[in-house]
Design brief:
The complex is a heterodimer of chains A (461) and B (79). Chain A is α/β, with parallel strands linked by helices and 461 residues long. Chain A is 39% helix and 18% strand. Chain B starts with a helix and ends with a helix. Classes of the chains: A alpha/beta (461), B mainly alpha (79).
Chain lengths: 461, 79
Amino acid sequence: MSDSIAAQKLSASFKDPDGFLFKSNNILYRQINTSYKDNYDCLISSGLYENLAQNNLLISHDEEQIPSFNPEILYKIIRPEIINFISYPYEWCFSQLKDAALLTLKIQKESLGKGMSLKDCSAFNVQFKNGKPIFIDSLSFEKYKKGQPWVAYRQFCQHFLAPLALMSYTDVRLNSLFKQFIDGVPLDLAAKLLPFKARFNFSLLTHIYLHADAQKHFSIKSKKQSNSQVSDFSLLGIIDSLESSIKSLKLKTNRSHWTDYYSETNYSPEAFKQKKKVVTRYLEKSNSKMIWDLGANTGVFSEIASQDKREVVSFEVDPIVVEKNYNDCKKDKKENILPLLMDLTNPSSAIGFQSNERLSLIERGPADTALALALIHHLAISNNLPFDRIAQFLSEICDTLIIEFIPKTDSQVQRLLQSRKDIFINYNQNTFEKEFKKFFTVGNTQQISESQRILYLMHKK
Amino acid sequence: MLKYLMFQLIILIIILLLSDGLAKPAYAYLDPGTGSYIFQVLIAFMLGGIFAIKLFWRQILLFFKNLFSKTQKKSEHES
């Protein structure tokens, strides 16, 4: 293959010597190298792949015959099923990470039953599809050698157990540690951040505190590993212990003020009904497949947007609200809504080696349509962002924009201004329209009755 | 078996309490993988034992559950 095609190799999989992801004609493929031949054949012939793919635990794929990047090491090329929106653990709420952890352990148990084991269980190998976590790395399986300990045990503790324990015992916001520690939270750090009472949880005492201590102890003392054997049953014991530990972790939810947001809005029931109608009409006009709901709160408008089989990513800054949205979606089987944690004033940036292992939010767009409802005053007044910069950012992440302008006289804006000096002389409808028209053309406008708010339908220039 | 597990558990707790290295930062350069590997071998027997007890306990519960439901069905049938 030519060098120009080689440039389409994806940076997310460059560490794996057994294969890599690439795009050809905008279709995603995975090359399997000859070094992985035995393991891949075992994955297929043991029936493990079929079992996992049929139960939507592992991404399904088709084998394809297309030219290779490196024919000398090529074994096979597969075309995996597409994930509509790639998300990362630092964007997940507690229950999303917990479900991803339980999925990983379930796959490990199934694998052991078929004579294989996960050699890699990074949380980044899990994505969300139809509202459920799914394992996406078909090259993470290896033949299980009898007596061998689980090579991914440390990674599991760092990627799942430690962040979940920290979110449960210390603070729900600590999954943001994933942004700094791309290979999971170091166990010595987790042990330091967890409260003293966490030592009385036997699983955490074992898998975090003593584990961290052992890492430190054995990193400076050499010990022969050749005779180290773990029986199959003991291995299942370790997995069962991790599973019980993960299941027992709960999130202590202090009610966030955002969860009461809809009961605290200044909309009359009639005005709120009209807002829903106008948004529905705009969405129908936009004819979109992928919608990003920015500042989605508990997802009332995400649900409206998800009608007609549209895919919706529901972004919200408050982890407790994302938790509620995710659990509601699970309960009500709203499979085409993906709730995610996102601070729009500091959206996910590209991270990892060469700053391109994990994509920024902007790189994962643009969405066909973005909803920015009851959002502009939080960006402009609470966070001092000028209209031109907000408009520029929104034009980078969507082709069509449904945005609500909330004037300064609105009681919600007045509430934001109560505790601060009003330095926002440019916060008015004229400046808003002038700045947004630099990046968008305005298709429709609609004043919401019994309120001072205006809904705009805009298209990127 | 249970005695041995308790012994292992007590040893682990003593190590934890006496350890001055716990939660001290490892910073960089050190490979945590080796420690994790050896640690897993050390705890494997104990966690395997706990798993065995758990399975055994489930069997006992299941036995009594079945026994109870059989007795209940029998008495319902007789009445």
